[in-house]
Amino acid sequence: MMFIRAYVFFLGVLATLFLGWAALTFIPGIQIKEVKPLPGLKPYTEQELRGRAIYIREGCVYCHSQQTRPDGFGVDQRRGWGRPSVPGDYVYDRPHLLGTMRTGPDLFNIGARQPSEDWHLIHLYNPRATSPGSIMPPYPWLFEEAEEAPEEFYRMQGKRVVPVPEQFRPEGKVVIATQEALDLVAYLLSLNHTYPVKAEKR
Amino acid sequence: MKSDHSIPGTEEAPELSYRILSDTSSSAPVIVFFTSAVVWLLVGTVFGLIASFKFNFPDWLGNIPALTFGRVRPAHLNSVIYGWASLGIAGLYVWLTARLCQTEVHWRRLLYISAILWNAGVLYGVVSILGGHSQGIEWLEFPKGAQTLIAMASVLLSLSILRTFYGRRVKHIYVSLWYILASVIWFPILYVIANLPFYSGVTQAAVNWWYAHNILTVWVTPAGLAAAYYFIPKVIGRPIHSYYLSLLGFWSFALFYNWNGIHHLIGGPLPTWLISVSIVASVLMFIPVITVAINHHLTMVGHFGKLRYSPTLRFVVFGAMCYTAVSFQGSIQALRSFNEITHFTHYTVGHAHLGLYAFFTMSIFGAIYYIMPRLTKWEWPYPVLIKFHFWLVALGITLYVISMTVGGFIQGLYMNDPSRPFMDSVQVTKPYLMARSIAGVVILIGHLFFIYLFYLMIKRKGVKRLTPPWYEKAEEYAR
Amino acid sequence: MTIPLAGVILIAVAIIGGAIAMGAFIWAIRTKQFKDLNTGAYVIFDKEEPVGEMTDTTFGYPEKNNPKKEENKNEV
Ligand code: HEM
């Protein structure tokens, strides 16, 4: 009797867990598997993938979402953050970076909203330089500092000088973007999901 | 129920002998689990505090890659979840299972191996995150190696507990034990399924949040409830008010709770029906929550005066009340109209700490205050420091939750007002984020008191526990 | 879109799962698994730590209603 009782108990426990898994992930998984990449969606390039890895490494996801909501649910549309995202937008995302916090703005379409490479580089070097009062962390290790010299001098060596305003960089130095910074910005600029999608694909 | 395993020399009190047997045999592994849990609590709290101050002073420690917000935050989450909470749960489960089965702990060697693997996994994982090797999936940031260690550790823990259960010397399975058994079966399965390598895109997001919510469902919450169902009646000396309700509570809990996860993605790019199912389940959670709340309240009625005498009771009752609060809050938060405002804001962080701290962590503190003297045969020195600990963390977490709840709600209102620039929603939270940091400092001080007491306990400084004269003999036998 | 199909599968799974759970529950009642429910709540008590007695008084306990007072004098 004791044995049967414990047995039924375990069965119940397993059944409830399995049920939840099946309902919430497995079935939608089948359903979403059938989702094809949208025609306008391009796979990431090598460089963009490297940038994406830095986005993951530095934990941008804890402050930035990458999902836009439809009209009638939040004001993403009216803020101009782009049309509601659909499963087909994410087929190349591994790991996913949907995010659940908006300490900073949604970045699903940042590439369209802010296409300036310089802006992004300055912002990453010190967010306060472009956005006074920002609480986003700085990422100085994505940059190098070098002696002040005409930009021409560095460009000849294939280096990218970032036009950081004077009061935000060390005295007598210029700020040079590392490959990592350029990769990250390339990824940010690739976040452009403005291509059309047929209605109610959600 | 008569126990059939009297120990020579304990004829005076045969019932007590099982308690000596189980407490003595669980002593070493449980102390190992609790001690490492306490270390991770300190580590996790410090990371939490650093993360919090980063909001107030974003350039502070701004040029140390390992201490950037985006790495410290997951380091905080993972050290408190897989370090403090999980190892604390392991200790609680081992001790409580042995007691409720009225037997000794079986397969103790597995427990030591489990503790070693578990600590190694968390250490490896946290160091990897700080070093920039995160998998980038929230709650599952640890690299595969660390996850493998933790998965193995949790299987070993479960095996030992199930073996102890198999060797039980009592017919009746007490309600706390239901939660423990469900939990030790669920958790390893959940952890392994969530870590399978074949998800991507939106499916992965669904699995991610199914997991992140379920780890609360099957691991953290059952531990808090098992503690409440045991310690409240045991400390006040009165059986649980309605045993029937506790049964109903368990099954409705098991049925509804694990459907909740996708409410983290309300409004997101997932099939609408899926999110609706989650919302319905979230609201259905009212049933188990109310049964637990009523039951605990009616058990305590007429006994609230006893809070004066028992630290365990204070912490556990505080935790049980916050369980009701956090569950109600959660059910409401899942409603679309409300979620529209609070989603993506600090409100969620307030909710997380109301659950993981005010409910769970407080309950575990209570459990540790009860269990440790029975393992070390030593009384807590300086009861007044326990009071400091209680009041500091109770006030600290209250300030924490209020500031995040209010601040997050206003943040959400501003965010949903398209006439305001986004930056307004950042600016408006600043005073609340500062209040949160202050709350964090208060909590950290409380933790330092606790850690000091725990240290004295391990070192056996202070007063020896009062025990009946035949105790030593029985203890010798149980070894 | 395959929502209807997925919905059908979901409902089927839910019904089967629910039926199993209900069956287990009815079986448990039939076989009187819940008969000793109210004594069950008492398994955590015994002669040494009986109902009506606090088991944790770290912050002290008023002398007049401390049932353990006598016994505590026997300390080791
Ligand atoms: C001094 C005490 C603590 C402080 C100052 C603190 C601070 C923080 C901070 C700043 C975050 C990040 C929030 C964000 O991203 O906006 C966080 C997240 C989190 N903390 Fe803590 N924490 C403390 C204690 C704890 C403890 C003891 C636990 C659990 C046992 C805990 C569980 C969590 C969880 C689960 C999250 C993730 C929340 C989410 O994803 O929404 N914290 N904490």
Structural write-up:
- The complex is a heterotrimer of chains A (202), B (479) and C (76).
- Chain A has two domains: 1-34; 46-190, Cytochrome c-like domain (Cytochrome Bc1 Complex, Chain D, domain 2), CATH 1.10.760.
- Chain A is 39% helix and 6% strand.
- Chain A is built from seven helices and three strands; from the N terminus they run H-H-H-H-H-E-H-E-E-H.
- The N and C termini of chain A lie far apart (50 Å).
- With 479 residues, chain B is mainly α.
- Chain B has two domains: 8-172, Cytochrome c oxidase-like, subunit I domain (Cytochrome C Oxidase, Chain A, Up-down Bundle), CATH 1.20.210.10; 303-479, Cytochrome C Oxidase, Chain A (Up-down Bundle).
- Chain B is globular, with a radius of gyration of 22 Å.
- Chain C is mainly α and 76 residues long.
- Chain C is built from three helices and no strands.
- Chain C is elongated, with a radius of gyration of 26 Å.
- Chains in contact: A-B, A-C, B-C.
- Protoporphyrin IX containing FE (HEM) binds next to helix 1, helix 2, helix 12 and helix 15 of chain B.
Shape of chain C: elongated
CA-based gyration radius of chain B: 22 Å
- Major β-sheet of chain B, in short? none
Strand content of chain C: under 5%
Total discrete domains of chain B = 2
- Residues in helices of chain B, as a percent range: over 70%
CATH homologous superfamily title of the largest domain in chain B: Cytochrome c oxidase-like, subunit I domain
Oligomer: heterotrimer
